[in-house]
UniProtKB/TrEMBL annotation:
Catalytic activity, EC: 6.3.4.2
Family from the record: Belongs to the CTP synthase family.
GO biological process terms, semicolon-separated: 'de novo' CTP biosynthetic process; pyrimidine nucleobase biosynthetic process
UniProt-recorded name of the protein: CTP synthase
NCBIfam families for the chain: PRK05380.1, PyrG
Protein source organism: Aerophototrophica crusticola
Annotated UTP binding sites: S13, K186, T187, K188, P189, T190, Q191, K222
Additional detail: CTPSs have evolved a hybrid strategy for distinguishing between UTP and CTP. The overlapping regions of the product feedback inhibitory and substrate sites recognize a common feature in both compounds, the triphosphate moiety. To differentiate isosteric substrate and product pyrimidine rings, an additional pocket far from the expected kinase/ligase catalytic site, specifically recognizes the cytosine and ribose portions of the product inhibitor.
PROSITE patterns listed in its UniProt record: GATASE_TYPE_1
Recorded superkingdom: Bacteria
Subunit comment: Homotetramer.
Domain CTP synthase N-terminal: 3-264
Domain Glutamine amidotransferase span(s) in chain numbering: 301-533
Record entry for activity regulation: Allosterically activated by GTP, when glutamine is the substrate; GTP has no effect on the reaction when ammonia is the substrate. The allosteric effector GTP functions by stabilizing the protein conformation that binds the tetrahedral intermediate(s) formed during glutamine hydrolysis. Inhibited by the product CTP, via allosteric rather than competitive inhibition.
């Protein structure tokens, strides 16, 4: 019997609903339960795939090819449970599905309305594709009081009634701000937020109160009294020095214990948090430090590279070092002499991206890493830029470029129009829709024995997640390999280049996929572990 926990938020956005969901999932796992985490997003986009990273942060990609909210990355990193298409839904997708049914006549002429048709579709999503999970945690995006959240709140209210209180629990994340002029924490924002939630028929059973300091007992009693809940279920969500301490902090505050008590389940014994304690110990007590320059185009909003930043941290955890990230806008390297800002860094990473802006700066970063023997990691777009750089400056193809930005001659990077997924041929057209039309999800890659990536992975075949439309042109493989750029990973049919490397370089690897999406603090991705190890070696030379 699956129990459902709904996590909502109030007062302001970015209070940490996703982190609370992920941490609770980890705590329940540590007690031996099987969990599943889901995200309900109120925006009208069908998915975040075509949204600017400045609007929504990174797009997280699942194995089965869904473009999803970045919170699903938190879920995977904290629980290790692979997320799926059925774990993220938006208002846009709900409405698309309902309207498609109406067009087919599935509603038999009924007037299609928010209640019951939209809310029923949301409830179907909440309960779908579950098997033997003990708990399903559903995070509702947005803030209580937002007009676009109302159908989701109504749906979870109905769902709670449908399954009964013995199978549904409502948690609400609020803010308890400290007002310096008054010299005290203020509970009124929390009271108003709960009142807003009550106005749509939901009584929260647990409150997670974000605060930058301990919440005194009398303030907890006040919150409990005004919000009609037990004092023990007013949980302080305190700031911590590393996000990987969040599960430990929530356990210390009694979050998982109160969840089990609500459901009438045994609270005997303690969760095994040893792996989180070890991760926190390594983060707090590094044996050294390396500096990695991340040369990208969305560096003013770090949520655009959320998984990447965490994967680099995981590489540091694996090597017992602190990874200091120097986020650099690629455009600055398009001015004379600016590339010298990369002197002294211990590694250079060029991440994924779309569009022409900053491309020449990324190419110069790749060239600087190659010619100065600095470890270089090119991910997706970063691999393509490394191939263009090698084509221009090693293979003599002075005008090499990507067809994403016009009609270069030669186009060493071009638009994919068809590729193999399993036993199926997938096709795309140049003038097709942008949404959901990329090469998305997990694909197999065959590694060449004797190469660096083969040594790093210790395997002949790997599977990694993709999100791109353009691909390195296999027709230039022979010419590039003659000048030293090895194509060390290919698609099973040998048509799509997946990995390139420079064998005579300390560490120079470009990958077409996104390895950061599969990295976890307790299971760092081997490429990031190896890259940071190379950066440590570089730090000894600087």
């Amino acid at each position: 019997m699956t129990r459902f926990i709904f996590i909502t938020g109030g007062v302001v956005s970015s209070l940490g609903k996703g982190m609370a969901s992920a941490a609770l999932g980890a705590l329940l796992q540590a007690r031996g339960f099987k969990v599943r985490l889901r995200k309900l997003d109120p925006y009208l986009n069908v998915d975040p795939g075509t949204m600017s990273p400045y609007q929504h942060g990174e797009v997280y990609v699942t194995d089965d090819g869904a473009e999803t909210d970045l919170d699903l990355g938190h879920y995977e990193r904290f629980t290790g449970v692979p997320t799926r298409k059925s774990d993220n839904i938006t208002t846009g997708r709900i409405y698309s599905n309902v309207i498609a049914k109406e067009r087919r006549g599935d509603y038999l002429g009924a007037t299609v309305q928010v209640i019951p048709h939209i809310t029923d579709a949301i409830k179907e999503f909440i309960a779908a594709d579950l098997t033997d999970e003990d708990f399903c945690l559903c995070e509702v995006g947005g803030t209580v009081g937002d007009i676009e959240s109302l159908p989701f709140l109504e749906a979870i209210r109905q769902f709670g009634n449908d399954v009964g209180p013995e199978r549904a629990l409502f948690c609400h994340v609020t803010l308890v701000p400290y007002i310096p002029a008054a010299g005290e924490l203020k509970t009124k924002p929390t009271q108003h937020s709960v009142k807003e939630l009550l106005s749509v028929g939901i009584q929260p059973q647990i409150l997670l109160c974000r605060a930058d300091r301990e919440i005194p007992e009398n303030e907890r009693r006040k919150i409990a009294l005004f919000c009609n809940i037990q004092k023990e279920r007013v949980i302080a969500a305190l700031d911590v020095d590393t996000i990987y301490r969040v599960p430990i902090s929530y356990h210390e505050q009694g979050f998982d214990t109160e969840v089990l008590r609500y459901f009438g389940m045994s609270t005997d014994g303690k969760p095994d948090l040893s792996r989180w304690e070890e991760i926190v110990r390594r983060v707090r007590n590094p044996e050294g430090e390396v500096t990695i320059a991340v040369v990208g185009k969305y560096t003013s909003l770090l949520d655009a590279y959320k998984s990447l930043g965490e994967a680099l941290t995981h590489g540091g955890i694996a090597n017992n070092v602190k990874v200091r990230l120097d986020w650099l806008d690629a455009e600055i390297f398009e001015t004379d002499g600016a590339v010298l800002r990369l002197e002294g860094v211990h590694g250079i990473l060029v991440p994924g991206g779309f569009g022409e802006r900053g491309t020449e700066g990324k190419i110069k970063a790749a060239e600087f890493a190659r010619t100065h023997n600095i470890p270089y990691f090119g991910i997706c777009f970063g691999m393509q830029m490394a191939v263009i750089e090698a084509s221009r400056h090693m293979a003599g193809l002075d005008h090499a470029g990507s067809s994403e930005f016009g009609n270069p001659d030669p186009a060493v990077v071009g638009l994919m129009t068809e590729w193999i997924r399993g036993n199926q041929l997938e096709k795309r057209s140049v003038d097709g829709d942008l949404g959901g039309t990329m090469r998305l999800g997990a694909y197999a890659c065959h590694l060449t024995p004797g190469t660096k990536v083969h040594e790093i992975y210790g395997s002949d075949v790997i599977e990694e997640r993709h999100r791109h439309r353009y691909e390195v042109n296999i027709n230039y493989r022979e010419r590039l390999e003659k000048v030293g750029l090895t194509f060390s990973g290919l698609s099973p049919d040998g048509v799509l280049p997946e990995i390139v490397e420079l064998p005579d370089h300390p560490w120079f690897i470009g990958v077409q996929f996104h390895p950061e999406l599969k990295s976890k603090p307790f299971e760092p991705h081997p490429l990031f572990t190896s890259f940071i190890r190379a950066a440590i070696e570089q730090s000894r030379l600087v």
